Batch of 2 targets.
Target 1
Amino acid sequence: MSAGLFGSIEGGGTKFVCAVIDEQNQILAEMRVPTTTPDETLNACLDFFNQQQVLLGRLAALGIACFGPLDARRDSPTYGQILATPKPGWAFTDVAGFYEDRLEVPVGFDTDVNGAVLAEALWGAGKGLSDVVYFTIGTGIGGGAMVNGQLLHGLMHPEMGHARLPRIGGNEGFFGVCPFHGDCFEGVASGPAMAARWGMPAEMLSPEHPAWKLEAAYIALALQGVICTLAPQRIILGGGVMSADFLFPMIRQKTVEFLNGYIHAVEILEGIEDYIVPPGLGTRSGILGGKALAELADRKELIAHS
Amino acid sequence: MSAGLFGSIEGGGTKFVCAVIDEQNQILAEMRVPTTTPDETLNACLDFFNQQQVLLGRLAALGIACFGPLDARRDSPTYGQILATPKPGWAFTDVAGFYEDRLEVPVGFDTDVNGAVLAEALWGAGKGLSDVVYFTIGTGIGGGAMVNGQLLHGLMHPEMGHARLPRIGGNEGFFGVCPFHGDCFEGVASGPAMAARWGMPAEMLSPEHPAWKLEAAYIALALQGVICTLAPQRIILGGGVMSADFLFPMIRQKTVEFLNGYIHAVEILEGIEDYIVPPGLGTRSGILGGKALAELADRKELIAHS
């Protein structure tokens, strides 16, 4: 075992990214494969890790930051599985078990957004903080949270994209695209929601288009609820929609407006620019999320053996 | 020091309840005083504890479960204070410091709802669980949460009563009573909201009145958001409005309806009766909340000294 070598998988609905990463977060090798069948995709990643272990040395642990819904509760009979996903063939696939059996290293397994919030809290925009929320706003909307320095799980992982939001005036005619809830956060503010509402993909809309003002307002409404419920010390917004970085000042302004002075925290009232921020790790939040989960699995294993 | 004797204060906007409680949660002495000025009220409680210490023995610690907003962050310069409350004279009163200076015992200080969720998780309806949410729904609406076995604080304590909710059809004319947010959870579902909407206090409305159906729906909408965001293992509902216990089955049904099968947790899908429940400690959640905070302060003190 090379103590300082970690495997990471960023498992998405479109592609899986695999990497071997050292203790200093240097990515030593990386590969991406399309998400086809579990058999094909998981084995392609396995082959990559087996090859890299010959070249670079044995992995200390593997971490998987994966699309959901999934079961990340260690004491659950379905731990390690992707649950009832609409993605064909993937429902109830035991992803963590697949690699535990074949790589024989400790495997960390959690949602993509919990991986990202962990990586951001360790090395990125949430560094030094104990209570951080990370949202990805893109094809879907998901949120991960660290509370008191630990990842939030509870009954299952959060599904922050599916909290219901108030309607913003003038859009009563648009029902929202979520097949479960219609106009939940994801239903009104994901990329597909923008495309459905305005008749073209978000990236085609000019920054002056009224779509963005409405988008910022809906995101701010969701953040208002998250602030009232989780009171994070910082909120990190990533994902495809947030690559329109002119959204940040608009979201900050509306969030302060919606809170309306009720939350007396200088971090919000005087420092909103440092409160709602983009990922500090940029596009590496995901793959370093897997690495962070690997480190966690490695440390847990060490604790369990001591 | 009698190791097993704890002081507890349940500090509300109307009255303060003080008690001396033993390790087995027996209330050995209890007193209530109206909430007038900080000077009068805090000193009346101090006198009670001083008298009881002569009669019963020295307290190991004191816990204060208090109305807010307040600062419960130990490392904050305003720790121990009630913050910008509209209650005359109480803003920026150093409640924890008052008793630390005069009783010279470890003092625990947190919100009434964080005290209640801690007591319920230790001895009541959340016993054995690590992730529990407690709501009080009455004159105001507040929520406390335990996550991974620890009280949720973050930037400040949560203000779950102030998350915004979608409007339920047919009530567009009613704006909500929250002076900050209008139609947030507290604005549409607190006791005063019910009274304002229907023209009479909630306790005057018969169980058949349509007010209750709407009330259950708004509470369920709020719980849908909390489940998506915090994913608690159980939700406990207390407070004056919830003394109308016929609300429980109505709220359970609407919560399942609003989640619409998205959260695949047997605890919700098959066990909603055990998922949304009244307080296991009944009306003692508050005063035992103070005692639980006292125990926590006592243990922290012991750890710090060891």
Note: Chain A touches chain B through 49 residues (CB under 8 Å).
Target 2
Amino acid sequence: MKTYINPAKSTWTEILRRPVFSVIELENQVQSVLTEIKSGGIEALRKYTEQFDGVSILNFAVQEQEIEDAISLVDDSLKKAIEIAAGNIRTFHESQVSSVKKIETTPGVVCWQKSVGIEKVGLYVPGGSAPLFSTVLMLAIPAKIAGCKEIILCTPPNKEGKIHPAILYAAQLVGITQIHKLGGVQAIGAMAYGVDYIPKVNKIFGPGNQYVMAAKQIISRGDVAIDMPAGPSEVAVMADHTANPAFIASDLLSQAEHGPDSQVVLVTNSSDLVVKVKDEIEKQLAILPRKSIAEKALANSHAVVLDQVADMIDLINEYAPEHLIIAMENYAEVAEKIINAGSVFLGNYTPESAGDYASGTNHTLPTNGWARSFSGLNIDSFIRKITFQEISPEGIKNLGPVIEIMAAAEELEAHKNAISLRLEELKDRK
Amino acid sequence: MKTYINPAKSTWTEILRRPVFSVIELENQVQSVLTEIKSGGIEALRKYTEQFDGVSILNFAVQEQEIEDAISLVDDSLKKAIEIAAGNIRTFHESQVSSVKKIETTPGVVCWQKSVGIEKVGLYVPGGSAPLFSTVLMLAIPAKIAGCKEIILCTPPNKEGKIHPAILYAAQLVGITQIHKLGGVQAIGAMAYGVDYIPKVNKIFGPGNQYVMAAKQIISRGDVAIDMPAGPSEVAVMADHTANPAFIASDLLSQAEHGPDSQVVLVTNSSDLVVKVKDEIEKQLAILPRKSIAEKALANSHAVVLDQVADMIDLINEYAPEHLIIAMENYAEVAEKIINAGSVFLGNYTPESAGDYASGTNHTLPTNGWARSFSGLNIDSFIRKITFQEISPEGIKNLGPVIEIMAAAEELEAHKNAISLRLEELKDRK
């Protein structure tokens, strides 16, 4: 972790440069797998599952009995924890549902928006060493609240052709409609094109390795939408003398243990704090099971000391972190000035872990500076806001002449005519 | 306009197939222009403006004096019409602003979303035969309401190096911060990379020809977001015996006059109505200035007769039209069942033109079936919903153990440790 003391503003972009994350190089390779899935169907899915997951799967669809077995295998304390987290996530995402507001913009002209769930959504949960059941909750709970009719989950099988019980437990808890033992590019291809009993969906959500990201990017040029662009996970911490160095070290390490390309940035007005945090990192790192991963991430990470809080805020807004922890005396005031961030954690007792798992906010957030233009997942990600309008005869009499003038000025006579015919008919009616 | 009487459901996909709209073929060509703009700066912009717009421009930025001249050139009746339309668009989009709701998901755990405007947005308004000032209103008014700090408008100059006064009038009315005489791929490149006095933006909005669309698609793989994927404009009309054939013909023609690749679909349970509408189309078409364009669009268009209203609804939901007019006796009831559409127009006196110009709804809508996963432009398009959370010592005591169990089960020990350290510190405090 390199430290910069009061670096000039002109150097910030360079200091905060993220490692290049481009999936373009993988595109040809991923494209050829996708093409084969599109034409080869289930057989192609089997072939690549053997190749990449090392297991031969006859039926990708998880059966009722497997879910029942899983329920009995999950520890009661974990079940209870998942249920509490699910409840909080549900409460927070339900609060995002907007009601229909009919607006009369001109007498007789009424307009409104109606939120309608995307019909079919595909959720991807990566495999790997540990079961990411928390991601099941974060993707499926808002989909269910949004009213998505079909919620398809794909997640890779292990070498025994099984899915971790905790994932199946979470999936049945939140109302997933189909679960398939399918990972990587195969999963994205199956949900994008529809393969046999795996339906084509309208939008695909969820994290994944760079092959999954490349596949999502490719299929999004066809007719399936994706949640957001990809990048490694990251956290920035803003801290002052009131921060607890051990807490900050633990927050930086939680991010660093995600992967060797994770980003960790500490921004503070206290040089003293940097020293203490580094000491604490060393202590805590020593006993971490994922020490070697965290070390790699820390090697690319920065501590920036800026005397002025205003500069600290500017630097954070330029960086646009996925996660931002503000451990400062006046954190509420500082938070007001944050305009580019995915999710913000306030004060000494609000670690990122809380939002990763259980506080209620979504943990699928814009990385790689995309917080400048994207929100994290929320109810909007799973709905369309369809606009409606209803104009009465009185309304068209009021507004029609305005439309006629504008259409004529844009030289769109048929647009004008659609108004004129109606106005004439209403005149005749008198 | 071909008519299908009660076609089998299995044939719908084929009947409703849209003309292939792919910009992939243009990508190499557009990429090379973009690359040159990235390295060549203002000189490259000048070169391509000469080449594509046939005019040599020294300073792309529109000057105060040009705006003042434009204001004096626009007809008072058009000014008034633009102001009324702007007022309605403002009223409707202001109603979409959501307030901050703090949610306590667990005692001591408070989460909320805050809407923050995207800092810098780039708006593109195409040139062509007529001045599309309505698009200026539709893009800039929500950007302003959202609180975007910099709103950059690019639109191509004419052969005299000027921008149509109506566009400048609309731009100054709605608070655009910079206007540049720049069209096509040059405009998209300038706003995506930032060229000299034209700033790099975070998100680019607006329609354009296939070169503009290809450029938007390419730059969206970098770090600039775009509003939505592209496709030709389209309208579907659902009608029964209560519909007015002349009105419907005028609505279909308003869509058809947009361009030769526009899509027009009539779905009805009355064969009789199809005959009458076709007669009316012939009559109205004869005197249209854009007759030849509309004829081409109509050649690819369809009338589908389905006896059952339920089938009409299913067909529309499968097609997912950009615009949908429901001219049926029980239109409110039918509208309730529409799940895939961009914007819906209800009853005999609600023509698409109203939403195109002045009722208040946005006219930038998802085409090409993208209504299955995208909304039309609305306030959400110009903001990010940043999540915030604040957890008190009591809150972390309540929720901490849940997070510890989940983090341990996902084998992320540093995540767990961030909680454990805080819980220990609170225990020590007693």
Note: The longest strand of chain A covers residues 109-117.
